[in-house]
Amino acid sequence: MDNLIGKIALVTGASRGCGKGIAKSLAEAGAMVYITGRTISEGTSDSGLPGTIYQTAREIHDSGGKCIALQCDHRDDDQVQGVFRTIHQRHQNIDILVNNAWGGYQHFTDGTEFWNETGFWDTPTARWDSMFQSGVRAHYVASCLAASAMLKKKCGLIVNISFYAAERNDQGVAYSASKAASDRMSSSMAFELREHGVTVLTIYPGLVRTESVLAGTDFLDLSNSESPEFVGRAVVALSRDKLVHQKSGRILTTAELALEYDFTDSDGSCPAPFSFQ
Q: Of 54, 105, 164, 175, which is the active-site residue?
């Protein structure tokens, strides 16, 4: 599991959830992992959920991995540039960028749950702004900075974490539109970077047992769910694949990647691929 030794990875939004699982899996595989997030003190996140970037880093260190946590609000370009400047000063390189940070989920904890809304016309417009600013734009800015560094070596992998809401009409207008925008952005980036040896692709996780999902278990069927580390194992498998450039521009699901690369979840289970039609 250590054949990513020497690789430099950045995972955004890794205080908890998928980002934390991805960071832990990359570190387990030997990568030097940088993580970003806004939460540095327990109990202070906007969502009210547990987890901090420093907790993620401690868990990785305790498991023998390498991780550096950098506080960053991805809505602030100066802070994002500071993250990449730090990585460049220390390594002059970045091999893997995982864009996981996202916004607009506050409605799960701020008393305006989506199921209490009639439709997009009475949904707070701030949710649209948050998903596009903290999600789509955050992915774009980080990808611009990573690509600039990757072009020099003519190699690199950019993974955008998205969701099948992009393919559906029943997930809320803001959520569906922002995820679709992220997917199209990945495809266009892949087109422009293909001749430069840089791979860009999108991953759709299934139902992931994040802190937010586990808080709503009374309303969810977790029988075919996956751990955050399962998403991480998908990223690791792609990072190891010397022919990953052949997948550039594609949308891939975690369960299908598990079948292709022959890996399981952390508990040995094999979540079934889902259909997003």
A: 175
